[in-house]
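QA checklist item 7 of 12: single-chain prediction sanity check.
[x] sequence parsed
[x] length recorded as 280
[x] structure emitted
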Amino acid sequence: MIQLVDHVPAPDEKLTAVRQTVAAGGPAANAAVTHRHLGGASTLLTGIGRHPLAAGITADLAACGVDVMDLDEESTVPPPVSCVLVTAGTGQRAVSSLNATGRQLPVPGDPPALVTGFQAVEFDGHHMPLALAVARAARSAGALTLLDGGSWKPGTAELLPWIDVAVCSADFRPPGAGDRLGFLREHGVGWAAVSQGAGPIHWAGPDGGGEVPVPRVRAADTLGAGDVLHGALVHFLPERADLGSEAFTRSLALAAEVATGSCASFGTRAWMGGEGGSCG
């Protein structure tokens, strides 16, 4: 739930929002919607359940063309809801969410079946036991594996050796590590990058490193820009066997252009041509 406000309320203050939009969200869902919007096929592996709120999430993802594998389809627990306040004029956002706290998805007995036929599998760091099992299966199947490193989470160190491409935010801080790119490479990641909002994206790979500039835009809402970056990156990257420095940096630049464009409008979907949280 995203609301546009004149300012973030002070303690005990009530205010009326300027606008509101509601949509299925979260890093993996937003990336899947982005990838589908750009012309790819997307499947979201998650847990939604059958609480009344779940019907809206499922319908929204279906309208966006995203298939869903629901590993918690019998759950009656309310799905996590993110409450987001976007400040008009600056695009800055304040977010409160449970994320996947307290919700453990089961690991199916046949993880390879979950990734059969997919060229790329992206992880957002949640549901770590499931992520580890799927990452191993994806690597064995030859699929490109990617990590959206929004922040450091328990189990991340065990996941990294199974990741081909990791793009992390400035909030991704491995314990005791000052050089994030070096840390990622030392832990088995082939291609690593760290985004810095409007600043350049720093990257490192097997044969070098550098910076990728980010286009400038007057931001109306920066919410979900990182998720859009990852969904677009999956779309532009070649298959794992064809990945090199030129392809990686070109894909990062194209993805950054899409992500920057998404910041020029309110909500996570308006840049696609949709209104009120819908897909265009």
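[x] summary fact logged: The chain has one domain: 2-266.
[ ] second reviewer sign-off
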